[in-house]
Design a protein that fits this description.
This protein has 418 residues and is mostly helical. Among the domains are: 119 residues, no CATH class; 149 residues, no CATH class.
Length: 418
C-alpha cells in the first residue's frame, strides 16, 4: 500500500513543473515580448529617431562644402641598363641570384616617389606657397604640416602603376591649383637629387669637371708666372709634340680612372663594361710607360735636358701641367655632356598624365549618407532607451529590486563624509 502511494506521488511530481522552472520562465523574455515593448513605446523611438535626423540635417547644412582636385602623374620607368648592371652583380649566384634579382628592385618602385611627394621639403613649400598656416589657423609649421596631410593624399595605383595626388579645399579653384603645384614643388626638389643611373653619372662628372676646371685655372696661372720669371714663351716643335702627347696620355688615364670610379657606383668588377674600361686603362698606361722610356717614372715624364735649356725646365713642367689639365677637362666635359644626354633620354622624372581641373561637384559632406547614418543611430538608441525604461519599470514593481535601486541611488548621489 505504501509502495503504491509513493509511486503515485512520484508520477504526480513528474507531471507538475517545479517552482524553479516556473521562476525561470517568468524571468525569460521572448522575442514577442520585446516586440510588444517596442510597440507600446513606439512614439519614444520615433521622437528619438526624428531628433537625430533633425540634428543631422542641420549639421550637414552648416558644414562647409569641400572640393577635391586630383592630379595623375606617371613616374619614370626603371632604367634597363641599371637593371642589367644589378643582374650582373648577382649573376654568379646561379638560381639564388635569379631569385634575388626579382627582389633587388623595389616591391613597388612608385613607393620611393610617393615618399618624396610626402617629404617635409615638399609639404613645407606647399604650406608657404599658399599661406596654409593662416588658412588652417596654426601657429607652428609642424602643426600646419599635420593639417595639410589631412587634406592631401598621395597614393600609388596598384593596377595602373600611376601616382594619384588629391587635395581637398573649400575653394574648388584653389584645390586644383594646389594639386598641380604639388608636382611643381616635387620637381624643384628632384632637381637637386640624382635618382636614376644617368643622373648619378651626371652629378658625378659635374663634380669632377668643376674640380678639373679649378685645376686648369691654377695651372694656367702658374704657367703665366713662370713665363714672366724665365722669359720663355715658346718651345720647339719636337719638345711641344712630346709634352702634348705625354699630357694627353696622362689625361686619358685620369679620365678612365674617373670613369671606372663612376661605373663602380652601380656595377661590380665582373661587369663587361667595367672589364673593358679596365683593359683600356691598362693599355693607356702601357703607352705612357713606352713614351717615357721606362715603366717607373711615368708621372715625372719630361723632355730631356739636352733638348731644352736648363732655364726652361721649370717652364716645361708648367706647360705640361696646363696641357694635362686642359686635356682632362675636355674629356670630362664630353663625359658630362653624354651623361646629360642619357639623363634626357630617360625622360622627365615626373610626367603629368591628367592635370587637376576645377572640380564642379563637392566631395563632402555626403548629406544623404550622413542623414541615413543618423537615422539608423537614432533608431537603435531609441530601441535601447525603450528597453531600458521597460526594465527599470519592472524592477521598480518588485519591492526587493526597488529597495536595491534606492540603495544604489543613495550610494551614487550621497557625498562621502570624512
Amino acid at each position: 500500500m505504501n509502495t503504491t502511494t509513493t509511486e503515485i506521488r512520484d508520477q504526480h511530481s513528474e507531471t507538475l513543473p517545479s517552482e524553479a522552472s516556473i521562476a525561470q520562465k517568468d524571468d525569460e523574455i521572448s522575442l514577442l515580448d520585446i516586440l510588444i515593448i517596442l510597440a507600446r513605446r513606439k512614439w519614444l523611438i520615433f521622437k528619438i529617431t526624428a531628433a537625430f535626423m533633425l540634428v543631422a540635417l542641420v549639421t550637414v547644412l552648416i558644414m562647409p562644402k569641400i572640393y577635391t582636385a586630383t592630379t595623375t602623374v606617371m613616374p619614370p620607368q626603371q632604367n634597363s641598363s641599371l637593371s642589367s648592371a644589378l643582374m650582373s652583380q648577382i649573376g654568379s649566384l646561379g638560381s639564388l641570384g635569379a631569385l634575388a634579382g626579382a627582389s633587388v628592385g623595389l616591391k613597388n618602385p612608385n613607393d620611393m616617389y610617393v615618399a618624396m611627394f610626402k617629404s617635409r621639403t615638399v609639404e613645407d613649400a606647399m604650406i608657404q606657397r599658399f599661406g596654409l598656416m593662416a588658412e588652417y589657423r596654426q601657429k607652428y609649421m609642424s602643426t600646419a604640416r599635420k593639417s595639410f596631410e589631412k587634406h592631401a593624399t598621395v597614393e600609388s595605383g596598384t593596377k595602373d602603376n600611376l601616382i594619384h595626388i588629391s587635395v581637398e579645399d573649400k575653394n574648388p579653384n584653389r584645390a586644383a591649383e594646389m594639386a598641380n603645384a604639388y608636382v611643381d614643388e616635387y620637381r624643384r626638389l628632384s632637381q637637386h637629387l640624382a635618382i636614376g643611373e644617368a643622373a648619378q653619372r651626371r652629378l658625378f662628372f659635374e663634380q669632377q669637371l668643376e674640380q678639373a676646371k679649378d685645376n686648369l685655372a691654377n695651372s694656367e696661372e702658374a704657367l703665366k708666372e713662370t713665363q714672366q720669371k724665365t722669359g720663355m714663351i715658346q718651345l720647339d716643335s719636337q719638345a711641344r709634340a712630346l709634352i702634348e702627347s705625354a699630357a694627353m696620355l696622362r689625361a686619358q688615364i685620369s679620365a678612365k680612372e674617373v670613369q671606372l670610379q663612376a661605373m663602380h657606383t652601380y656595377a661590380t668588377g665582373q661587369n663587361s663594361d667595367v672589364v673593358q674600361t679596365q683593359q683600356e686603362l691598362e693599355g693607356l698606361r702601357a703607352q705612357l710607360a713606352k713614351l717615357a722610356g721606362n715603366g717607373d717614372d711615368t708621372a715625372g715624364l719630361i723632355v730631356p735636358k739636352g733638348q731644352v735649356p736648363q732655364a726652361g725646365i721649370e717652364y716645361v713642367r708648367k706647360y705640361r701641367d696646363v696641357k694635362y689639365y686642359e686635356t682632362i677637362f675636355e674629356i670630362l666635359a664630353r663625359q658630362f655632356e653624354l651623361a646629360k644626354l642619357d639623363e634626357a633620354k630617360e625622360g622627365a622624372l615626373i610626367q603629368v598624365v591628367d592635370p587637376a581641373i576645377v572640380p564642379d561637384y563637392k566631395s563632402s559632406p555626403k548629406r544623404a549618407l550622413l542623414t541615413i547614418v543618423a537615422i539608423a543611430a537614432g533608431f537603435f538608441i531609441g530601441v535601447f532607451v525603450a528597453l531600458f525604461r521597460e526594465g527599470m519599470e519592472r524592477l521598480q514593481q518588485d519591492p526587493e529590486q526597488s529597495e536595491r535601486l534606492s540603495i544604489l541611488r543613495k550610494a551614487l548621489w550621497t557625498k562621502k563624509t570624512a
